[in-house]
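Q: My collaborator sent me two sequences in one message, no labels, and asked for predicted structures for both. Can we handle them in order? The first one she listed is below.
A: Yes, handling them in the order given. First sequence, followed by its structure tokens:
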Amino acid sequence: MKTSALIVCKGFIDRCQPPMQSGLSQLLSSEDQAKLQQVPPLVTLEPELLKWDLLDHIHFSWLAPYLRTLAESEIRLFLSTLAKEQSQGLQKILGFENHFPHLTKTSKSALRKVLYAQVTQNQDLVPIAFLPDHPMNRLLQLSPTVLRKLIRFLGLHDLSFEMRQIISTKELKTIFNALPKHEGGFLGTLMLHQEPLVFKRLFLQKWDGSKENLLKLLDERGLHRLAHVLYRASESLLWYVTHRLEMHQGNILLKYKEKPAHARAEDILTGQVKKILEFLKKGEAP
């Protein structure tokens, strides 16, 4: 039995009364029964997540490679089936104007199934309702905007360490001036304490002095941290998170997914994610 099917099976069995659980488990092969015992507890998600249309929550950049292989008339058909933000994003990168055909509900459903198949590429994805429990399941409840902010703020942890190595007051001021006010404020609080976890030293040596380049470097540092906190996550959760990001960022995250050398990295990073989300929830970072 595939991993995803086994996890869904566990989800159904766990929702039954104990006597029925035993009877249902015995219907499985001995091999699958043994595997079932190894499946971690499943998470209880918010009701809104159970109603997800997955295609609506995939960043449009993941759809672009397939659409570029099609004729213009076919592209317009697919764009007409997507959410407004996705359609507008693809129009911009593919060079299309807003003139799309009107489709029936059945036609839209069929075309969306094609797009879904193309982007998932036969991945053995566990449905969101049956994801194994993990602290980072909460990432799926964040809006794309908040998820991007979380990544940027994680990168500020690396920057706080780097800035302790800088002597020049002028250079420090240049860095603070390059950051949005709320990010600079958060960075200031980080510099009051010693950063316990550093993955890449001297990353500022790549900075060309521009605001755009600094923010790009911070995002990469944040993705590095997020990749390490997702190291033990299920492949399905990792897929869902990366595909909510712009494709380039998602691939950076995958590049850094490896076992961290620091023994307490996962605990430290989980704590950092929690504090950042609390900070953002307070409205201190508009």
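Q: And the one she listed second?
A: Here it is, processed independently of the first:
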Amino acid sequence: MNARPVALPLDRLRQQVERGEVDTVVVAVTDMQGRLLGKRIHAPFFFESVLENGTEGCNYMLAVDVDMNTVDGYSISSWERGYGDMEFVLDLDTLRPVPWLPATAMVQCDLAWLDDAHSPVVESPRQVLKAQVARAAEHGWRVFAGTELEFIVFDDTYEAAWDARYQGLTPVNRYNVDYSVLGTTRVAPLLRDITNHMHASGLTPESIKGECNPGQHEIAFLFDEVIRTADNHAVYKNGAKEIASLHGKALTFMAKYDEAEGNSCHVHMSLQGTDGAAVFADGEEPTDLF
């Protein structure tokens, strides 16, 4: 599989900023819960300072629970040790437009310590994955992944869902819409917005289908090198929620929202050699490694 071009080359972003078409650059990292955390940087300041010098964020981002409460037991960050900063190391290969938000671009980052060597924060999810990719490369393998994420959409806003303590919410479909064309048609404005915006942001959506739980749907994306897939996966989950909010709806990827069918996260993994050949198959037969 050939390397894909950057969704938003740096020179193009610079031109867009100079023309006033982009005024915000989201600088983001993936946390332990798979969420995007970071800052919104004013685009002129991004080029004046952040592009060369980076930016910082508190190391507690990797030592909190899902409600952002600090959790005991982390060696990198605690009340006893203190809470310091980490450096956001821009990965310019991840630059992308965020077309569902006005005048916005995004870049994803690695995390490093503020020492002379800029040592990587090995506990960060992106570094954990990079370490596994490096181990595979030592064997002459390239790692690929594709994801299919199911989600449930509600006609309630996020604020209304919070106020209702997430009880008695109204799904956008009232019945099982697994493979139902009519079922997805009824939610098409939202689903089309998600897929079209993800495509414009550098992802490759393959298909949309309804699922079993009322209001449940799935979008599948083309496989890619595993780090790029993981980056895109985080962008998609964050973006789908933002787009749902713009439609006055709420959307959740929660694994088990209620007693009915849960939201699966299908992850398809494969290995290729440096020559592009499959590692686990030789023609019609599995290899010895398999």
